[in-house]
Amino acid sequence: MNKQWWMDEIVYQIYPKSFHDSNHDGIGDIPGIIEKLDYLKDLGVTMLWICPVYNSPMDDNGYDISDYEDIYPAFGTMDDMNKLFEKAQEKGIKIIMDLVINHTSDEHPWFQEALANPDSPYRQYYIFKEGKNGNPPTNWRSVFGGSVWQKVPNEDNMYYFHAFSKKQPDLNWENPQMRHDIYEMINRWFDKGISGFRVDAINFIKKDQRFEDGIPDGADGLVSCFDYCRNIQGIDKFYDELKKETFAKHDCMTVSEAVGVGYDRIDECIGDKGCFTMMFDFNYTNIDVINEDYFRPTNWTIKEYRDAIYLSQEEIQKIGWSAPFLENHDQPRSINKLIKDPQYYQLGAKTLATMFLMLRGTPFIYQGQELGMLNFHRQSVEEFDDLNAHSQYHRAIEEGFDEKQALAFLNQRSRDNARTPMPWNKEQYGGFSTHQPWIEMTDGYETFNAQDQITDPDSILEYYKRLINIRKNQYHDILTYGEFISLPLNDHIVSYIRAYENKKIAILCNLSSSNQTYELDNIDHVICNNIHDYTPGLLKPYQALILYLKK
Ligand code: GLC
Ligand code: CA
Question: Does residue 412 belong to any structural domain of this protein?
């Protein structure tokens, strides 16, 4: 692949509501991000992905947009946003925004008009359909539970489609006028000087136009909508046009949220023919659950996880570029998910960081991950904010689990785990705010906050800085442009090689709590080690090594 500027980026994802609260109302905001730019610069990241800050009724925390060209008042103003662009640029930090164009909020003026007036052209901006025999048009289950169809008030037998919540009606991508309006909006954001977009749920924009029932797969009598509105054949036509009318006109970076895309079809997403410059691959991220249902955990093994990473890296390498990540605002904390032995959480955070930051692709770090943040432990379902937590709880009960088990699934998997405020110091509310935050903090910030870690050379934060420096500066070419080569050594070790010209680096991460041996005879020297011991051929529990190999 030709070298591109976006291969060099180290991205940091910000969830604005929980990053930093500058005016002490309990809600993070844009001026709060500006105040923390030095922290981000010091960490070594080069780009920020800012989760949605657009105006929104916040049913799904901003992924329900009511105005694409205005800012949610609690987050600040467009002036604040412009100031953030300017200040970040001064520090050499680029910004990508979230682009949510599969759906809008039901409070978006287009949808309001579509509801108020069935003859309005805006009715064609969304998907309205008549019911069948007193039932909704199909038996598909929405991502957040319940039917994808919501009855239109004051009309007989009329429904609108929503793949996510009922306050997130899907846009009708079959309508060229709607697409045109979206493209213009996107181009206006580019004119403001942003570097690109993370493109939300984009593989949902094409629906199976047959609108046929499926075989129920749950106690609710519905069938997951994934087979009917995600990665549907023909979506590439929409991707091609979207690219041509927007992204291709700008020297930008775009990353698609591509859950469930088969490797046989990633060429629609990335590479020369694909729509985006890179993609998030969830095939190994969601190793712990089946079909994204929290109440269907798997018994994954380290070998399966390693092999899933190998497959992802190898398949993406054939076509284009990837965007490795351990966490985001929809995932639990990676330590809880991937480190099986709680005794090793601290060390394991460094192991995971080593494993993921050296992969081929542009790495994305989620806020708090660099501090080793953990999941929380809530006592009741009422303490959860996320609408999906409530839906998953409800479905777990419906599927026959008791309340205790249903709650345990949420504590393990809920998206709220990643959405608690950033702990900046050990003061009340972690220095995030002086006001009670919109969501309860994760316990333990007295010991894992940013301030304490900055002054501790052995901290997880300092280790992240070291890894970023290795990737970005010390071994930039090998770790950025180098080929990915899988190196199976031992079923408990995730190990691989990055090779560039005639230079090679091996990454070895023991994901188990016992000693593991390996055979590798061409080691030149150790670049990085997450503990202080080194015995060739041996990895202590959760030890991670970056090794320079002989030619
Ligand atoms: C994406 C977002 C998620 C949101 C959903 C609907 O998956 O990452 O947070 O709920 O799309 O927009
Ligand atoms: Ca605030």
Answer: no
